[in-house]
Amino acid sequence: MIKGIKRINEVEWELEKGFVPGMHVPAKFFLSEKLSETLEEGAIKQLANVATLPGIQKYSLAMPDIHWGYGFPIGGVAAFDMEEGIISPGGVGFDINCGVRLVTTPLHISEIGKVKRLINDLFHTVPTGVGTKADKTLTGNELDDMMHEGSKWAVEQGYGLKDDLIRCEDNGCMKEANIEYISKKARQRGLPQCGTLGSGNHFLEVQTVKEIMDEEAALKFGVSKDNVCIMIHCGSRGLGHQVCTDHLKDIESATKKYGINIPDGQLACAPINSDEGRAYFGAMAASANYAWANRQMITHMVREVFSKIYKTEYEDLKLVYDVSHNVAKFEEHTVDGIKKMVCVHRKGATRAFGPHCHDIPKELLEIGQPVIIPGSMGTSSYLLKGTLTAMEKTFGSTCHGSGRVYSRSKAKKEISGSAIKEELERQGIFVKATSNNVIAEEAPGAYKSSSEVVSVVHKAGISLEVARLEPLGVIKG
Questions:
Q1: Would you state the pLDDT for residue 379?
Q2: What local confidence, expressed as pLDDT, does residue 410 receive?
Q3: Choice among 148, 325, 400, 458 that is catalytic
Q4: Which helix (H) or strand (E) holds 116?
């Protein structure tokens, strides 16, 4: 373990103020002994560096899937005072509102038949891969409406059901979106890509519910043992990446303009209420809405494929929930016993609001928010529920996935994509990807154990296990 880390209990660890110069608050992270073996010193330093930013509240936080990122570590969470605090693109990432949604089907695993046909049909229906274009290219006005309205726009265009909006974080729309701050280049990249899966760690996976840990919550969420489900993981595509790139330049200038001292240039930031801060936040929110519409359109395609193959009714494929992993939002939290609005950055972290919290569907108020944690290709994914402990300890946040241990370049050098594909097929998991390199990059061995990561957040009480899902087949870009 890295020198200077203080252990609080079995799964909580702390960096005291002074771990790096200028920390305003301590840093806390969640980890098991096993996961500590792959802990990167660079990621821990990034976590401590975040604690030096103006207006940070309580702690700089990291989840058990922590690994080195741009500025903030991936798995990082930080909340900032609305008056004295900042907003930082490094605390959101380039893939704005990369997120995941879980859809249930009326099918039992015994009814699924040959997964290969289903995966092939999904692969040919959902545009997948680097630079992929959608079947429909948006008009400029349609793009504007999408960035304003998010999932609601997609549903009103026939890509889904009104009930889908209820089961989305923020109902699939950040109202603070301001398209005035979206560049021409970002728009050009966004016009042909909505309704596409993209590449990298993005995927569409057909799964079955292997184990139920919380019967009451599972019933409320709409999942049952041996139920066939679909998990969709993607974000704002080229539009979101371009928005981050565009605004980083202005934010870097603002850091100097407002005299903000930062220990790492990648932590460039601006006061929340500055012109630069408002511009970035408005463009980020518009990108988040684009991502929600993107996942909504892919859900529509999935429903149509299932209707064609299994004769299921469109409305029988129900959305459990949709969560964002990369976003900054204005939320009310309790700090030092006082309720106040703060700007919460979640970068590779999932919102995990507990029972009776605001912005949870009425029918789930007694249970808490559904939390979806994808595994790496070929490993378990999890459905959890948010908790009041998360509201107290982590600004209502938990982990977002497995967390990488190999870089993509290292994975391609050391892992054979074709061998991984063959091994997964021997396990009954059919994989369809644009290339074997993609499979190598996303091989299970390139990631931490999703089961170990979820065990940590469960033990910490910041989200609790509801169900475990196993993959049947996956498409990747």
A1: 92
A2: 80
A3: 400
A4: helix 115-125
